[in-house]
Design a protein that fits this description.
The protein has 192 residues and is mainly alpha-helical. The protein is 73% helix and 0% strand. It is built from six helices and no strands. The protein has helices at residues 2-30, 46-62, 71-104, 122-138, 141-171, 179-191. The chain is elongated.
């Protein structure tokens, strides 16, 4: 039952992701460079890639009761699809890294902290889980090493973004939870 549910959700989300990805990619190619405050959003793309990898790599290992006669074919589809998606995810990670580095360079706008920085965490977590799933399907050490490196980067991003969020909550720049935070935000809005 759960395998059928997973496949249904995969069908509902993955093809919508492909359509939105085409629009997003066109935006990156044919319009001006994404501004610094939106640079973290470029990372979002690897989240659905990771989820699709995880689905394609896991279904052959879990579908024995639901699709027993299709396991060899599902394994082939999983190997080809998840490996191809992994390559796409690596490519997109390089693009997203270059966007971030461009904005952090002297010529860039910088990347002001916002809750959008969680785009450095959740999509990378999804892609890391997908890489581990691909390792379990293939038993190739390359994917184990890649997933471990991704996990280390993910842990670093999580710490940095968590600390930024905590700081923003405490000083009122992300959440006005003290009376003086609200007044400061109103004053700043009036002066701009």
């Amino acid at each position: 039952g759960m395998t059928a549910f997973d496949l249904t959700l995969f069908g509902m989300t993955f093809f919508l992701f492909l359509m939105i990805s085409a629009l997003f990619y066109m935006r990156l190619m044919y319009h001006r460079v994404v501004p610094g405050h939106l640079a973290p959003s470029v990372w979002i793309e690897i989240g659905p890639i990771g989820m699709a990898m995880g689905t394609l790599a896991t279904i052959p290992l879990t579908a024995h009761a639901f699709l027993p006669s299709f396991i060899p074919g599902l394994r082939s589809i999983g190997l080809i699809g998840a490996t191809a998606l992994w390559g796409t995810g690596v490519w997109w990670s390089i693009i997203a890294t270059l966007y971030s580095l461009m904005h952090l360079s002297k010529r860039g706008e910088g990347i002001p902290y916002s809750l959008g920085w969680w785009s450095y965490v959740f999509p990378l977590g999804s892609f890391t889980a997908g890489t581990y799933a691909l390792y379990h399907l293939t038993d190739l050490k390359l994917f184990f090493i890649a997933a471990f490196v991704q996990l280390l980067v993910l842990a670093g991003c999580f710490v940095i973004v968590s600390l930024g969020t905590l700081k923003g909550i405490m000083d009122g720049t992300l959440l006005a939870w003290r009376p003086h935070h609200h007044h400061r935000g109103v004053r700043e809005a009036k002066t701009s």
